[in-house]
Design the sequence.
């Protein structure tokens, strides 16, 4: 059984984020969406160990500098609840390689909102852009529709 804990990282270079267009994996809840790099914790991993392993597996890169920016709680009917540790990273080394789950592309931050993103991702990407201090964001979906948003325990939106 997969852990309900995940990591997600937005790797920065030249005012761009490394984004993955999820078009390769079968039966993918993120199919067609653009997301950062990450995945589920393995047994016994800390958030940082998961972050470093997932980035290395998906990109070939080794992170040298990163920031833990927030925790995002996702709930979606039929998929349960996921607790995502959200990071940004601005220093790395290694040889980049292709990923089995999607196509990787450096996307200027100014163009992020033009991509096919989850509605909730737009919210936390704006929090990252605004340099929001460490935050807790809750995003609840009914199918693909965002129906509840809470930031630091305060409701922002409900349909």
Sequence:
């Amino acid at each position: 059984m997969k852990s309900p804990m995940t990591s997600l990282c937005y790797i920065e270079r030249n005012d761009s984020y490394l984004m993955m267009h999820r078009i390769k994996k079968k039966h993918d809840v993120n199919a067609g969406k653009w997301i950062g790099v990450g995945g589920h914790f393995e047994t016994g991993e800390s958030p940082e160990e998961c972050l470093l392993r997932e980035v290395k597996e998906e990109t070939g890169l080794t992170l040298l500098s990163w920031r833990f920016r927030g925790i995002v709680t996702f709930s979606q009917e039929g998929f349960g609840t996921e607790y995502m540790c959200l990071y940004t990273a601005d220093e790395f080394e290694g040889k980049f390689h292709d990923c089995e789950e999607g196509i990787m592309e450096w996307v200027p931050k100014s163009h992020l909102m033009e991509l096919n993103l989850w509605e909730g991702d737009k919210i936390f990407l704006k929090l990252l852009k605004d340099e929001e201090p460490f935050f807790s964001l809750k995003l609840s979906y009914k199918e693909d529709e965002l129906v509840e948003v809470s930031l630091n325990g305060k409701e922002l939106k409900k349909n």
